[in-house]
Amino acid sequence: MLQENLNLDNVLEKKVRAKKSLVGSIEAKSDSFILVASPSGIKYNIPRSHIEGRIGNEIMLDISYKELKRYKFK
Question: In whole angstroms, how far apart are CA 70 and each of 26, 31, 57, 64, 73?
Fold first, then answer.
């Protein structure tokens, strides 16, 4: 669940983690989604509702790495 006080204004290029696995870095954002690019070039369009919080410079998601495939950007 998105933390209401979480500031996502300056999140471009921040690292993103799905549970314990590093997913990649944020390339773009909109009011509803963040676009995350993995080091291998795979991109994911993830709903902001899956952002659990922020620890340091990393954005934490409330889904597992396996669950990310449904958000793969085509």
Answer: 17, 20, 25, 11, 9
SS3 labels along 23-70: EEEEEEECCCEEEEECCCCCEEEEEHHHEEEEECCEEEECCCCHHHHH
| Domain ranges across the chain | 15-71
Give the single-character DSSP code of 4: T
Distance CA 30, CA 73 (A): 14
pLDDT digits (tens, 9 = 90+) for 16-72: 989 889 999 999 999 899 999 999 999 999 999 999 988 888 999 999 989 999 999
Question: Residue 11 in contact with residue 29, Cβ under 8 Å?
Answer: yes
